Amino acid sequence: MYISDNYINLKKIATENYNNYVAAQPFPSIVFDNFFKEDILNLILNDFPKNIQEIGSKFDNKAEKKLVLNSPDKLSKHTNNFINFLNSEPFVKFLNTITDVKETLITDPYLAGGGLHELKNNGHLNIHADFNLHPKMKLDRRLNVLIYLNKNWQDNNGGHLELWNKNMDKCEKKILPIFNRMVIFSTTDYSYHGNPNKVKIDENNSRKSIALYYYSNGRPQSEKKLGLHSTIFRQRPGTQDVDGNLEFKKLFGRIYLKSKKKF
Fold first, then answer.
1. Contact, 157 vs 197, CB < 8 A?
2. What domain range is 235 assigned to?
3. In-domain check, residue 29
4. CA 86 – CA 130 distance, rounded (Å)
């Protein structure tokens, strides 16, 4: 089992943490430490490809500088098994319970935008709200699950996950991406998040994580105010951050589009 005693207690953990999740600011979210068996994550860390730049996707623009690998045939056996667990019925039911998503959650076999993420020195991802429709399955995006694989990560290494309020005038929460830390949060038009401050590490290190996204067939009408949209990047006060949309071109290539929507 991937989470030891937590596996048989998933429903209990979800029920006990439901109120904390739904009441979290600036939007529903929760952080768990040491949720998974350390030896499993150690295997994934040891298998983490050193050449994602060659075998995966590279994003290098004003809004983001990161590497992504989401092809199962290029992931290790241990990594694929772990992702399969995160997409299994017990874990998905756990997510449905703790988040109070009424619709049945659906996993993403294509790992669109997900999989392994890596940020090397100066890597960053500006504050944004995620695309809200799966590019292949045309389902509504509802949840993000991020699992960090970084040992001995310090505040001065940067790369904190930041959660910003709807008005984009305050960072409500900063989360250090340390080893065996899992973050779960709801994805809506206003769940602004990212790691905008550049990572500061030597060339032999990087910020590593696993990203899984969950969908549903339909969502509450109250969450459809902006309609269909791609990733919406937002500008932090006093910065030159990109403020607008990055559209999907095919599946992973992106181009800038200046947004005309009022957020």
1. no
2. 5-257
3. yes
4. 20
- Identify whether 263 is part of a domain: no
| Tens place of pLDDT per residue across the chain (263 aa) | 455 556 678 999 999 999 999 999 999 999 999 999 999 999 999 999 999 999 999 999 999 999 999 999 999 999 999 999 999 999 999 999 999 899 999 999 999 999 999 999 999 999 999 999 999 999 999 999 999 999 999 999 999 999 999 999 999 999 999 999 999 999 999 999 999 999 999 989 999 999 999 999 999 999 998 988 889 999 999 999 988 765 444 333 443 334 444 44
* DSSP H or E segment with residue 211: strand 207-216
The pair of structure tokens assigned to 238 is: 């006093």
Q: Residue 148 carries which DSSP code?
A: E
Q: Determine, yes or no, domain membership for 262.
A: no
C-alpha–C-alpha distance, residues 125 and 127, integer Å? 7
